[in-house]
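The authors assume throughout that readers already know how a fold can be written as discrete tokens. A single example would do more here than another paragraph of explanation. An entry of this sort, consisting of the sequence and the corresponding backbone structure tokens, reads as follows:
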Amino acid sequence: MPADLALVHYPGASQAALAGMTEMFSHCARMQRREGMEALTLATVTADTLPAARLDAVILPPAFGNDDFLSPDPALVRWLRGQHAGGALMASACAGAFYLGAAGVLDGRRVTTHWGLEARLQQRFPRAKVNTDPILTRDGRIVTAGGLLSWIDLALELTAQMSSPRLMRELGRHFVTDTGRREQRHYRGFRPPADHGDTAILRVQRRIETGFAQALTIRGLAAEAGLSERSLLRRFRAATGLTPLAYLQHTRIQAAQQRLEGGPDPVETIAHEVGYEDATAFRKVFRRLTGLTPSDYRRRLRR
């Protein structure tokens, strides 16, 4: 049977994603007809034009340049909940996951979103299992994708599910896009929270961010903050979600990423510049946080 898909045009949705997914699924339908298969159908819907019939899949695209997704239309949320209860596959890219969360379909599910929205999504929907390392995550009938352009990965995944993996690969060749699995953590930046209101911890954060290349110690950081070591560790984690050591590692690796992207210096030199005496230890931390070796990162990200 043909698959019926709905692409939700909510307030603030990315126009590029709406148009791009429409074109990709239109080409998928052409390929299906060429193969003698029943073609999938895609309809763009709004909160005012929600179909009553049960669909095979509902897609929430990314948002662009706004926070409208934080205040979803109640009628749309109820409709999403009903489609999920009726067996529809629920899919989102980037901020579209907030609509799925509002509909209550992310509880207990592994889910991804844009890395910059990870903390807000987890805070708003604490029962969701949010992990922004992958570009794409599937958990049962829930498929979520990460970054603003992850609608491409999402369209490919849905093509594979609603059509066939072979046609998905052909679709990728037609649009000249990689059909292999990617990871969002290759591109993720480090945006530590600074609005927690703990001024002592803010001083420690600034000390790490300006002195990351130095040999910082918990004792020294605690002294600068006027705290005991135990209080520093407790309050730092409460404010930032990280230990001071993890915060230092993220800060150093972010500085290394910028150097790898912008210049030809050897990895060993960069490791030393950002505070690592041992280049092997630097490579291990870099790969753990980014999913790539420093050399692979340079090849992938540098133009």
